[in-house]
């Protein structure tokens, strides 16, 4: 990729993110018509960059494009709410608390079930990854390296969903990853993760390896409940 291509890709990503936040926050409400020329001027980019961002937003259901009407912000029921980028934008916007509540409900209905299924379907390799991820979480939790802890946490949950043996559940790994990343990047995670949460992750890994579906489901439910409650009661982001 040449320098110009890299610059264009960077501008496209910036415009996409800014428009995504504006739409998902409601600042650009459903029915609002986006004018290409106005967007070019607003963001100081070329028409091709704006059109590429619009194309992606349309693929996500956030806007519709019709001849003689233009580009219109779509109503929320049309959005692909499981798209990790939409989740990220909503966490960046004003309805973060509502998004966290909805995601918590989703995780309660998905991850404990996935843990129980993993106790029946996980491969030895997947069990090893789960155990290794917990060990990494323990190390990085003690040191306070939250980015390294996040990577291990995402690996654990993605592996667990894949180990369920259900490809529909596995496809939700991106959603869960955005929740975990949002907790860290919006300062909703304590400086040193709760030791009990790490212990519950270890209990899930052990139960999956032992084929104990009930124990795996119970420990995973504890994880989701603790994380959701902690995020909803955390103080707001510190001022920049």
Q: What spatial form do the alpha-carbon principal axes imply?
A: elongated
Number of strands: 3
- Portion in strands: under 5%
Rg from Cα: 20 Å
Q: Averaging pLDDT over every residue, what do you get? A: 91
Helix content: over 70%
Low-confidence stretches: 1-6
Helix vs. strand class = mainly alpha
* Series of secondary-structure elements, N-terminal to C-terminal: HEHHEEHHHHHHHH
Report, as a whole number of angstroms, the end-to-end distance: 34 Å
Strand order of the largest sheet: 1-3-2
Instruction: Give a quick account of the main beta sheet: strands, pairing sense, barrel closure.
Output: 3 strands, antiparallel
Number of helices: 11
Describe what you observe in this structure.
The chain is mainly alpha-helical and 240 residues long. Helix content is 71%, strand content 4%. Strands 1-3-2 form a three-stranded antiparallel β-sheet. A hairpin with a 3-residue loop joins strand 2 and strand 3. The protein starts with a helix and ends in a 7-residue tail after the last helix. The N terminus is likely disordered.
Mind sketching the topology for me?
Blueprint: H1 3-24, E1 33-34, H2 36-43, H3 47-59, E2 63-66, E3 70-73, H4 84-92, H5 96-121, H6 124-143, H7 146-163, H8 167-170, H9 173-185, H10 195-210, H11 213-233
Antiparallel strand pairs: 1-3, 2-3
Helix pairs in contact: 1-3, 1-4, 2-3, 4-5, 4-9, 5-7, 5-10, 5-11, 6-7, 6-10, 7-9, 10-11
Would you summarize the structure shown here?
The protein has helices spanning 3-24, 36-43, 47-59, 84-92, 96-121, 124-143, 146-163, 167-170, 173-185, 195-210, 213-233; strands at 33-34, 63-66, 70-73.
């Amino acid at each position: 990729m040449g320098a110009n291509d890299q610059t264009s890709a960077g501008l496209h990503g910036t415009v996409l993110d800014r428009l995504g936040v504006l739409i998902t926050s409601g600042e650009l409400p459903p029915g609002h018509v986006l004018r290409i020329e106005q967007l070019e001027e607003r963001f100081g980019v070329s028409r091709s960059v704006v059109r590429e961002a619009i194309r992606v937003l349309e693929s996500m259901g956030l806007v519709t494009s019709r001849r003689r009407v233009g580009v219109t912000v779509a109503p929320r029921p049309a959005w692909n709410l499981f798209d990790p980028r939409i989740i990220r934008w909503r966490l960046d916007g004003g309805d973060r608390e509502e998004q966290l509540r909805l995601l918590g409900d989703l995780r309660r209905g998905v991850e404990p079930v996935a843990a129980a299924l993993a106790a029946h379907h996980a491969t030895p390799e997947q069990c090893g990854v789960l155990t290794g991820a917990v060990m990494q979480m323990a190390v990085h939790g003690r040191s306070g390296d939250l980015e390294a802890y996040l990577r291990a946490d995402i690996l654990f949950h993605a592996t667990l969903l894949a180990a369920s043996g259900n490809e529909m559940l596995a496809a939700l790994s991106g959603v869960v990853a955005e929740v975990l990343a949002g907790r860290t990047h919006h300062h909703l995670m304590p400086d040193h993760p709760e030791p009990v949460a790490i212990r519950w992750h270890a209990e899930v890994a052990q139960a999956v390896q032992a084929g104990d579906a009930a124990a795996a489901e119970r420990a995973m439910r504890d994880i989701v409940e603790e994380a959701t409650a902690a995020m909803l009661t955390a103080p707001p982001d510190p001022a920049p």
